[in-house]
Amino acid sequence: MPDRVGGPAGGTALSLAPRIAAAGPKDGLLHVGGAWRPGAGDAVWTHHHPATGEVVGRFAVAEPADVDAAVAAARTAFDEGPWPRSRAGERIAVLHRYAALLREHADELRAIQALDNGVPLSFGGVYATSVEVAADCFDHHAGWVDKVGGETLPPYQGGDHLAMTFREPIGVVAAVLPWNAPLLLFAQKIAPALGAGCTVVIKPSEYATFTVVRLVELLLEAGLPDGVVNLVTGPGDPTGEALITHAGVDKISFTGSRAVGRRIVEASASTLKRVSLELGGKSAALVFPDANVPLAGMTAMGMVTMGLSGQACVAHSRALVHRDVLDEFLENAKLIAGLVAYGDPFDPATTASPLINGRQLERVLGFIDRGRAAGAEVVVGGERVTGELADGNFVAPTIFAGVSNDMEIAQQEIFGPVLSVVTFADEDEAVRLANDTEYGLGAGVWTEDARRAFRVSKRLRAGTIGVNGFQVEPHLPFGGFKQSGLGREGGRSAFEAYTELKTVMMPLGDEVM
Question: Cα(272)–Cα(275) distance, rounded to whole angstroms?
C-alpha cells in the first residue's frame, strides 16, 4: 500500500490546526422559535476531528427543558402559524429558494462537512454526499407540493353526496440525523416535511452538528416563518431521548443503528407516533460468472473504502462471488484497496475518510480480529493505520476471503472499510445467501444476462437493487425490508409519509346521509 495509507514511521503527525483556524465553525447554539440561544444548562459537547483528534469546536447540549421549548415552538407554529396553511405556491417558492442557496454555498458546506466528519473534499463532489443531491431533494419535493392531494370518490350508497379525501400535514416532526451523510439525509427528511406543511425539530448527530447548523441558517434565510424549523443539539442522552419521548411530537424520522431504531419504536408506542426508520444493512453484491468481473470487484471494494470508508448504510459489504471468478474478483478488489489514500480531507489526493470516533475504530478492529479467529483469510489490510496518521481513526482497507455466510463478518453491519467475500455455485445459492440476513436495505446484481438480472432482482428481499452499478437518486424511494427499517425516503411515498389522510362526506341536497 502507498505511504499515504500506512503513513511513514516516525513522520510528522497530521494536523488540521490551520484549516480549523481559517474555516472552523464558531461554537454552536440552539435555534428555538426563531431565535438562536444557548442551552438551559452549562453542558457543552466538544467535537474532535476524527482524522487527528484536534478540537474543531463546541456546541450546546440541549437538555429536556430546551427540547420542551423547541417542541412547543414547533407546535405553536403548526397550530397557529401560517406555514401549514400556506398556499402551494408559497411553499414551492421557499423550497426552490433554499435549493438555490445550497448551490450558492456549496464550497462552504463541503468544507464544514470535512471538518465535521472528515469526508474528503475529493469525495464531497460525488453525488450521494454532495451539496447538489441535497439541493435536488428540495427541488424534487417542491414539485410534489401542488400534486399530492386527495380524491373525489363516487358515492357507495344511495343519495346525492360527495365522498372526498384530503391530505393534511402530519404535525410536528422530530428529525434525528446521522453523521455520515448530513447533507443528503438532512434534505431527505426536511424537504418532504416542509413541503407537506409540517413543522420540524431537528437533532443532528453530535459528530456532524456544524454542517446542520449551517444548513438551518440557510433555511431561515430562504424565508421560513419563526418556529417552523427548530434545532436542538447534543448526544442521544439527554437530547435525543427527550425528543423521541416527547408527547408533543407527531412523527419521528430517524436514520441510524438498529438499537436506536428499536428504542424509537418503543418510545413512540406511548402516544402512537408515526415513525420512519432507515436502520442500515448488510447488503450483498452478487457477481455471476458472465459479469464484468473487474468492474464488479473494483466497485464493491470502492463502496466500502472510497469516501466514507464503508460508513454507509447501503454499502455492499458482502460480495457473493461465483467460485469460477473468485480470483479475478479479488485481484481487482485489491487494486482499489491499494488506491485508498488517507490524510488531510482538504487535500485533493485524499480519497477516504477516517472512522468517525475511537469507539467505532475499536468496533471495526474487533470485527477484524474475530473474523480472523473464525477462520476467514485476510487478503489485504486488517490493521490500524499508524505513522503520521496514528492520532486518527484509520483502518487499512481490508478484504476477507474464505468467508462462510454464517460468520459474524458476513452477518453484522461493520461500518468500516471491510469487504467479506463469500462464494456460491449457482443462482439459487446466490439468492439464498443474499437473503440469509436480518437486513434488507440494498443489493447489487452483476451479470450481462438481462433476464437473470430481472429474475434475481425480483427474488432479492431488499429495498433497492442496482444492476451492474448502484446510485442514489432523490426521486426514487429508498428504504429497506426486514430489520433495515420502516417506510421510504425519496419520491412521492416519502412526501405522503408526512401527511395524514382525512375523509370528508357531504350531502349535495337536503337529505341526510
Answer: 9
Predicted structure pTM score = 0.95
Q: From CA 487, how far away is CA 494, in angstroms rounded?
A: 8
Residue corresponding to grid cell 372526498 = 164
DSSP code per residue over 1-32:
--HHHH--TTPPPP--HHHHHHHPPPPB-EEE
Condensed to tens digits (0 to 9), the pLDDT of residues 88-111 reads 999 999 999 999 999 999 999 999
CA proximity to 318, closest of 408, 451, 425, 426: 408
Secondary structure (3-state) at 220? helix
DSSP state of 200: E
Region of residue 402 (phi > 0: left; psi between -120 and 50: alpha; otherwise: beta): left
Q: Does the active-site annotation cover 278?
A: yes
Dist CA 458 CA 293 (whole Å)? 22
In the numeric block, which cell numbers belong to residue 181? 451523510
As a whole number of angstroms, the distance between CA 369 and CA 66 comes to 42
Instruction: Please tell me the distance from the alpha carbon of residue 386 to that of residue 373, in angstroms, as a whole number.
Output: 23
CB contact at 8 A, 412 and 439: no
pLDDT per residue over 444-488, tens digit each? Answer: 999 999 999 999 999 999 999 999 999 889 999 999 999 999 999
- Contacts of 272 by beta carbon, 8 Å cutoff, 6+ apart: none
User: What distance in Å separates the CA atoms of residue 452 and residue 309, rounded to the nearest whole number?
Assistant: 31
Neighbouring residues of 455: CB distance < 8 A, sequence distance ≥ 6: 427
- 59 forms beta bridges with 28, 45
Contact 459, 284 (CB under 8 A): no
Give the SS3 label for residue 504: strand
Quickly tell me which residue has 429497506 as its cell. Answer: 480
- DSSP label of 384: B
H or E segment at 284? Answer: strand 284-287
Residue of 54, 206, 278, 489 with catalytic role:
278
Picking from 13, 90, 43, the residue whose alpha carbon sits closest to that of residue 389 is: 13
Catalytic residue among 206, 313, 388, 489: 313
* Contact (CB, 8 A) for 83 and 77: yes
Neighbours of 89 (CB within 10 A): 10
- The amino acid that residue 436 corresponds to is D
Q: Please give the full DSSP string across 37-93, using - where no structure is assigned.
A: E--SSS-EEEEEPTTT--EEEEEE---HHHHHHHHHHHHHHHHHSSGGG--HHHHHH
